[in-house]
Design brief:
Shape: globular
Largest sheet: 5 strands, antiparallel
Number of domains: 2
Number of helices: 20
Structural class: alpha+beta
Radius of gyration: 24 Å
Number of strands: 5
Mean pLDDT: 93
Strand content: 5-15%
Order of helices and strands: HHHHHHHHHHHHHHHHEEHHHEHEE
C-alpha cells in the first residue's frame, strides 16, 4: 500500500489554505489590528511587556511584530511574506523553509489577532501547518507527485488530527445537552441561523422537514461513527472515511461560508486514499523507496511526538475524561505556539437569528443604515458567497448579536463604535462602499430578528429575509467620541 500521492496533494492544498487565509486577511489588517484599527496590535504588545519581562515577551507571545512593528505597512508586509511562503508550498520550492515561514507568519497573526483570529480553523491551520513542515523531504526544487512518504509518526499525527477534528465535532453535540441534535431538528435551524449564509442556504432551508432531519442524522453518523474506521488497517476502510468526510465538507461548502476550514479538512482526508484509488492520470508511474535523510526523519518524529503529547490531553478533556481547565507546565510552555487545540463546531445549535442593525445620523433625526458587505442586511439582498475568504468583522457581528441578546456586548465593540463615530477610514473600509463621514456622527444600535422568507413571500416581495424590528439598544451622540 502506498499513500504518497495523497501526501503530495495534502501539502499543495494546505499551501492553498494558507494562501486564502493571507489574501483574505491582508486588506482587513489596518481596520482590525493596525494603529487606527478596532483592536490595535500594539496595545496588546504593550500589555504583554507590562506583565512579563521585556526580554521574555517575544517568547510568551511569538510574533514577527516584535521585530518589525505593528504599523499598517508592517502587518501587511507579514501577510505578503505569508503569501510568498504559501506559493512556495503550492509549487514545492524550498521545502521545508516555505512551510516554516508560512507557519510563523500565521502564528504572528493568531497571537496578536485577539477576537478577530480566534476561530477554530485559525488554530487548525497552525496545527496542520506545523506537521506540514516535516511532511516532505527537504529540497530546493519541486519533486514530482508520489516520491515522498512522511515518517510513520507524522502520518500517525495527521491521522489522529483528522480523527479528533471529526469525532470531537460530533461528541460535543451530544455532551452539550442541546436537544436539537438528538431529536434531529438541528438542520431545520442551521441554514437560517449560521453566521454568514450563502446563496444556496435559503433554498436548502425550504426543503421538507424530513429531509432536513435526515441531513442532521447524516452529520451525526459521519462525525460519531465513521472516524473509528481509521482504526482498521484496510485501505478501503480509510477510503470510506475519506469519502464520507469529503462528502460532508462538500455539503458544508455548498451551503455556508466557513473560510478555509473545508479546504483544510479536505487536505487532511487525501493522505488516507491509497495511490491506486486515484485516477490513473495522477498516479506516479514508479514508486521509488522513500529516501528521507535520517537526521530529518528523527527530527520529524520528535515533532510529531511533541504534537501528540499536547493533543491527547486536550482530546481527553473534550471527551470529559480529563479535567477541562487543568494544564501541566509542559502544556503551558508550548501554549503560545498553538501546536494543537480542541475542536468541536456547533455544539449548541442557534435556533434564532438576532442581528445588530447599525444606523447613523448627522442630526439625530434622520437615520440611515450602515451596511456590512456580507452579514445579513437588507431584506432583498441574497446571502453572498465569500468562502474561502473570511470577512472577520462580519463574522464577529454574529457573535456580538448573540451577546447583545443576553444583555451585553463584547469588549471589541466599544472601540469599534468609537472608530465609527470618529470616521476612521481604516474601520469604515471594512464596511460597505458608503463613504465614511468626515466628522463625528450619531450612532444607533437596534437588535432586530431575521428569518428566511417563505417561497410565497419571496415571490410576492422579492425579499430573502423577513425582518422583525427590535428594541433600540443604544444611541450615541457625537460628544461621546470626544
Amino acid at each position: 500500500m502506498n499513500y504518497s500521492l495523497g501526501f503530495w496533494l495534502f501539502a499543495r492544498i494546505t499551501g492553498l489554505s494558507y494562501l486564502f487565509a493571507f489574501l483574505s486577511l491582508l486588506p482587513q489588517l489596518p481596520g482590525l489590528l493596525g494603529p487606527h484599527g478596532i483592536l490595535p496590535a500594539q496595545n496588546l504588545l504593550s500589555r504583554v511587556t507590562e506583565v512579563v519581562r521585556p526580554n521574555s515577551a517575544p517568547l510568551s507571545l511569538p510574533s514577527f511584530t516584535w521585530l518589525c512593528g505593528t504599523s499598517d505597512f508592517s502587518l501587511q508586509l507579514i501577510a505578503l511574506l505569508g503569501i510568498v511562503a504559501s506559493i512556495l508550498i503550492i509549487t514545492g520550492y524550498l521545502r521545508p523553509l516555505g512551510a516554516l515561514l508560512a507557519w510563523l507568519c500565521w502564528l504572528s497573526f493568531v497571537n496578536i489577532g485577539q477576537d478577530f483570529l480566534s476561530f477554530q480553523w485559525d488554530t487548525l491551520l497552525l496545527e496542520v501547518g506545523f506537521l506540514l513542515i516535516f511532511a516532505e523531504k527537504p529540497g530546493l526544487l519541486p519533486r514530482p507527485p508520489g516520491r515522498d512518504i512522511p515518517p510513520l509518526l507524522i502520518r500517525l499525527a495527521l491521522t489522529f488530527l483528522l480523527f479528533r477534528l471529526i469525532f470531537s465535532s460530533g461528541i460535543v453535540k451530544l455532551l452539550s445537552g442541546d436537544p436539537t441534535w438528538p431529536n434531529l431538528s438541528a438542520m431545520t435551524y442551521h441554514f437560517e441561523t449560521q453566521p454568514i449564509p450563502n446563496p444556496l442556504s435559503w433554498f436548502i432551508h425550504q426543503l421538507p422537514t424530513s429531509l432536513l432531519h435526515l441531513s442532521t442524522l447524516f452529520t451525526l453518523l459521519i462525525e460519531l461513527l465513521l472516524p473509528f474506521a481509521l482504526l482498521l488497517p484496510q485501505a478501503k476502510s480509510r477510503l470510506t472515511v475519506s469519502l464520507g468526510v469529503l462528502s460532508l465538507m462538500l455539503l458544508i461548502t455548498l451551503t455556508g461560508n466557513y473560510a478555509f476550514f473545508n479546504l483544510l479538512t479536505v487536505a487532511l482526508c487525501l493522505p488516507l486514499i491509497e495511490n491506486r484509488f486515484y485516477p490513473s492520470s495522477l498516479r506516479p508511474k514508479t514508486i521509488p523507496l522513500p529516501l528521507i535523510p535520517v537526521p530529518w526523519k528523527h527530527l520529524a518524529s520528535l515533532a510529531a511526538l511533541l504534537q501528540l503529547s499536547l493533543a491527547i490531553p486536550i482530546f481527553l478533556s473534550t471527551l470529559q475524561l480529563f479535567p477541562r481547565f487543568s494544564s501541566t507546565p509542559w502544556q503551558n510552555s508550548f501554549a503560545p505556539w498553538h501546536l494543537t487545540s480542541g475542536y468541536g463546531l456547533f455544539a449548541v445549535m442557534t435556533t434564532r437569528r438576532p442581528e445588530i442593525t447599525l444606523e447613523r445620523s448627522p442630526d439625530g433625526l434622520r437615520w440611515d443604515p450602515i451596511l456590512f458587505p456580507y452579514k445579513a442586511g437588507p431584506a432583498d439582498r441574497l446571502p453572498p458567497q465569500i468562502a474561502p475568504f473570511q470577512p472577520r468583522l462580519d463574522w464577529q457581528m454574529w457573535f456580538a448579536a448573540l451577546s447583545a441578546e443576553r444583555g451585553q456586548l463584547p469588549g471589541w465593540f466599544t472601540p469599534f463604535l468609537e472608530k465609527l463615530q470618529q470616521g476612521s477610514p481604516e474601520v469604515w473600509h471594512l464596511l460597505s462602499s458608503t463613504p465614511y463621514p468626515s466628522g463625528s456622527t450619531y450612532l444607533r444600535l437596534r437588535l432586530d430578528h431575521y428569518h428566511f422568507s417563505t417561497p410565497t413571500e419571496h415571490s410576492s416581495t422579492g425579499h430573502w429575509w423577513k425582518i422583525t424590528p427590535g428594541p433600540i439598544l443604544l444611541v450615541l451622540s457625537p460628544e461621546t467620541s470626544r
